[in-house]
Write a structure and sequence with these properties.
Length: 316
């Protein structure tokens, strides 16, 4: 099926939110309420249902990448099974985004199941800042998870959301850690989502401000941006590469190729659009194609405009 819009955008990457609950309470994602903290008794959608949805989408879109996310995907009980199911569909790149809290014990099974790439969210290198960002104290668990993933041969990247007044002193410590472990790091500008909708500006540490901080220690040159990449990349004189995902100050909607599937079986064409489009096992091919066209129309032309829905529901 030919599905693209006037900018030539297609859906080639599917992000699958396996569940909308998490074991961390990151301040840009959750309110830290008791309700959120105890929400993990929600029934989980079975792996076979996810694989069925992904297979039908793959038939229509010829997907190149599936990324598992959430919520926290390592809390999804059938994670190895769902990875195996997607691998069997022949989709080239199987990736995951995780906080790595449970990765130390799960990495070998995930690698075995077919996972190749993992983006670990790590927003601080000291325990106090880590706590300020995640409302959790055990930074060491995330670091141990990263080490085990590397030892298993997983391709690890780090994502660090930067917030003014919270972890803006962590740019250089995070960079030093990533360089020392030879891991690619991307800093993220905070996005106006969920409870930050309408007032994320006060926390925005911009791409320019992040670069200014890095320039106090390194010389670097900008690399050419690859089409549909979320990040801009730079290389230091020593050969280390780092990236910035400038959601706010240098948006990249124009060649976004991402479609999202949430834990309730809805598809979303854009993070900026709260309107969920329910996929149903009984959709005819024509109905499914109609839904994909609706999702394509949700895409923004230029810029992410914010959303009242937190990333943990729609899938980060
Ligand atoms: N629990 C997993 C994790 O922590 O990586 C996966 C889900 S999390 C929602 C996925 C990504 O979304 C993380 O990299 C997180 O930092 C990012 N994220 C969530 N809310 C955000 C916001 N308001 N602004 C920028 N990034 C955000």
């Amino acid at each position: 099926m030919e599905l693209n819009d006037k900018y030539g955008r297609e859906f080639k990457t599917l992000r699958v939110s396996l569940l909308s609950t998490c074991n961390l309470g990151c301040v840009y994602c959750t309110m830290g309420t008791e309700e959120e903290e105890t929400a993990d008794h929600k029934p989980q959608t079975p792996a076979a249902v996810f694989v069925g949805h992904i297979a039908r989408l793959h038939e229509q879109l010829d997907l190149k990448t599936v990324r598992f996310t959430g919520g926290e995907p390592l809390l999804y009980r059938e994670l190895p099974g769902v990875i195996e199911g997607v691998k069997a569909l022949g989709i080239g790149n199987i990736k995951m985004t995780s906080n790595a809290f449970l990765l130390d014990r799960m990495a070998p099974a995930l690698k075995e199941a077919g996972l190749e790439y993992i983006n670990v969210s790590l927003d601080a290198m000291d325990s106090d800042s880590f706590f300020a960002m995640t409302r959790r104290k055990q930074l060491q668990r995330t670091l141990k998870g990263i080490e085990t993933a590397l030892a298993c041969g997983l391709d690890v990247k780090i994502n660090s959301v930067m917030m003014k007044g919270k972890n803006d002193d962590q740019v250089l410590p995070l960079l030093e850690y990533a360089f020392s472990r030879n891991i690619r790091i991307r800093f993220l500008e905070v996005m106006a989502m969920g409870h930050l909708f309408g007032h994320a500006g006060q926390y925005l540490l911009s791409q320019d401000e992040i670069l200014d901080t890095i320039a106090t220690r390194y010389n670097f040159n900008k690399l050419e941006r690859k089409s549909s990449s979320t990040a801009n990349y730079w290389q230091t004189d020593e050969g280390h590469v780092f990236g910035i995902i400038a959601n706010d100050t240098e948006p990249f909607c124009i060649d976004c190729n991402r479609l999202r599937l949430d834990a309730e079986g809805n598809i979303h064409g854009c993070l900026s659009d709260n309107h969920a489009i329910l996929l149903d096992d009984y959709d005819t091919e024509e109905q499914l194609q109609q839904k994909l066209r609706m999702a394509m129309q949700q895409k923004q032309e230029v810029k992410f405009v914010g959303s009242e829905m937190s990333m943990m529901h729609i899938g980060g």
